[in-house]
Known about the structure:
Elements lengths: L6 H4 L4 H11 L10 E5 L6 H11 L4 E2 L3 E2 L14 E2 L2 H9 L3 E7 L3 E6 H9 L4 E4 L2 H10 L4 E6 L3 H11 L4 H16 L6 E4 L3 H10 L8
Parallel strand pairs: 1-7, 1-8, 2-7, 3-4, 8-9
Antiparallel strand pairs: 3-6, 5-6
The structure holds guanosine-5'-monophosphate.
The site of guanosine-5'-monophosphate has 15 residues, from strand 5, strand 6 and helix 6.
Amino acid sequence: MSRPIDPTANAPGGPTQERLAQQTARPQAPKPDVRVVVLAGPTAVGKGTVSAYVRTHFPQVWLSVSMTTRAPRPGEVNGVHYLFVADEEFDRLVQTGEFLEYAVVHGRAKYGTPRGPVERALAQGRPALLEIDLQGARQVREQMPEALFVFLAPPSWDELVRRLVGRGTESQQERETRLATATRELAAADEFDVVIVNDDVRRASEELVSLLGSRPSH
Length: 218
Ligand code: 5GP
């Protein structure tokens, strides 16, 4: 899908920026006894980096491992970063109701959160973190309205573009698709309970984990 990106919407001082600033300034009032945090945000904002930081520094937080039909990137480990499955296997699991949520992301690969592991983590009393896209976050809200929905925002639109280009893992066409998705996702920030600006990975991660009532283990 190609939709022209409106650079003014997300430009510094533009409407999206302004709204994000208002939201981050808003007092954060987490729901009581938050045990599930859903982290969403636009492509390349650093959700993966924040999740990796949480994995390393906050082992008490249980991170959901998503299933995906996309190919692994260099360095990605099956079962740690994702469970990589074939399309047919993914569809079979959809049919048998194995997913808490699932979506086709960026019009290409399928991604989903296996339901069983989330339920087991919660039964063990471990706080759970789900890093998923906007479509998935909306599905989880239907099923778990008590969860806390956190939007990870870039410091600016230019910085988001810089991170996506700098990552160098996508083709030009793929980048354009992802930026078009990002524009839509930024516009949905006000659906979330809390907005965290990812200006510094450690700070953003600690803010995120503080919402789960956990403390750094370092
Ligand atoms: P990537 O391919 O860059 O790892 O991830 C692409 C997008 O898929 C990201 O926005 C990521 O948050 C999202 N994603 C990862 N896992 C899931 C999942 O289980 N469900 C949904 N709905 N989105 C996911």
